[in-house]
């Protein structure tokens, strides 16, 4: 019996030992599993910590960039504010110079500029050379489109003029693909500058020049005489100092003036009343071609000289030298000091000029057929050549070497379809239809 009890006791011990070993093995396996999980969790935590540090570093870098950009924005805002204050101060001083004087200006002269500082300097020096003696009558402005620093510095270096700056941040959308954005910016600049001069500075007349022009000695006297015509005759839309066919071989008489249905541009004067009409409908681009449309003339005409009072030396610009060598470089700039104050210009009034010009055309000897150039040279006195349509005009014009271009059915320089130019001392009249005032 005792042996059986001992045996049972040993069996129980063995069972207990096996159970204990089993429990220990399970505990060890569980601890190992938890240790592995803990190690994995620690590894994941370390990875997250690393990623978080990288993200924090990136955020810090971005914040640094934001701070730099914010400082740059504030700096630019300060510069713009200073520039605006400077422009307003300069304009105030310029306006004060005008209002302090008893002399009422005949017209302001505005030089339209953008990014050609060397051209601008040449133009300003030419204008001031003849403006000094009539400074109270013709205050000078420079209007810059954009922020080109050399142009701004050059304009501000002259105490004799007032500087204006057109800052336009609006994007340009062209109406047709392939168009040059520059022509849209130029049109915006012109409208802004003329609005400023007529409405802010309250001027009655403005002469528009570009930054690639020189003027003749009698430039200001010419426009003063023309201003009286503008006031008297409302059929005159503007007065120009330019003749498209003003090349040296085609002009002679510095006293001769004409009416024209074609807008010449390139140094021209208009009144506030005309600008009141044009400003609200000013085109987005190609303003000069727009002014040559008959619908915008409303039957009015332009005054132009035979011999130009401006010379355009701008071979490089928005038009990329178009026509320069053939038509602009050979232009004759008047070098005669004409006493315009003693001239009777009443013949340019519409009714008188119709008879005056018609008489000249009527007296000219007609030339027809082929070889009109040779026939014209063999005739003493003035000559008139009749053309039937644009192709015929272009053919004859190319033989003489004058401008062949038309705008809205009007040849350059034409009055009632008649283009006047000289060959040697002889006047040539090219007309499509010699109307009643010629036949009378």
Automatic annotation (TrEMBL):
- From which residue to which does any coiled coil extend? 66-93
User: What membrane topology term does the record carry?
Assistant: Single-pass type II membrane protein
Q: What is its main location?
A: Golgi
Catalytic reactions on record: N(4)-(alpha-D-Man-(1->3)-[alpha-D-Man-(1->3)-[alpha-D-Man-(1->6)]-alpha-D-Man-(1->6)]-beta-D-Man-(1->4)-beta-D-GlcNAc-(1->4)-beta-D-GlcNAc)-L-asparaginyl-[protein] (N-glucan mannose isomer 5A1,2) + UDP-N-acetyl-alpha-D-glucosamine = N(4)-{beta-D-GlcNAc-(1->2)-alpha-D-Man-(1->3)-[alpha-D-Man-(1->3)-[alpha-D-Man-(1->6)]-alpha-D-Man-(1->6)]-beta-D-Man-(1->4)-beta-D-GlcNAc-(1->4)-beta-D-GlcNAc}-L-asparaginyl-[protein] + UDP + H(+)
Report the co-factor binding details: The cofactor is mostly bound to the substrate.
Please list which residues make up the signal peptide.
none
A single Pfam family it belongs to is GNT-I
Pathway membership, UniProt: Protein modification; protein glycosylation
Q: What does this protein do?
A: Initiates complex N-linked carbohydrate formation. Essential for the conversion of high-mannose to hybrid and complex N-glycans.
**Cofactor(s) the record lists:** Mn(2+)
**Per the similarity annotation, which family is this?**
Belongs to the glycosyltransferase 13 family.
Q: Which GO terms describe its cellular component?
A: Golgi membrane
Alphabetical list of InterPro entries matching this protein:
Glyco_trans_13, Glycosyltransferase_13, Nucleotide-diphossugar_trans
Alphabetically sorted, this entry's keywords are: Coiled coil, Glycosyltransferase, Golgi apparatus, Manganese, Membrane, Metal-binding, Signal-anchor, Transferase, Transmembrane, Transmembrane helix
Q: Where in the cell is it found?
A: Golgi apparatus membrane
EC number(s) reported in the record: 2.4.1.101
Per UniProt, what is one GO molecular function of this protein?
Answer: alpha-1,3-mannosylglycoprotein 2-beta-N-acetylglucosaminyltransferase activity
Q: What is this protein called?
A: Alpha-1,3-mannosyl-glycoprotein 2-beta-N-acetylglucosaminyltransferase
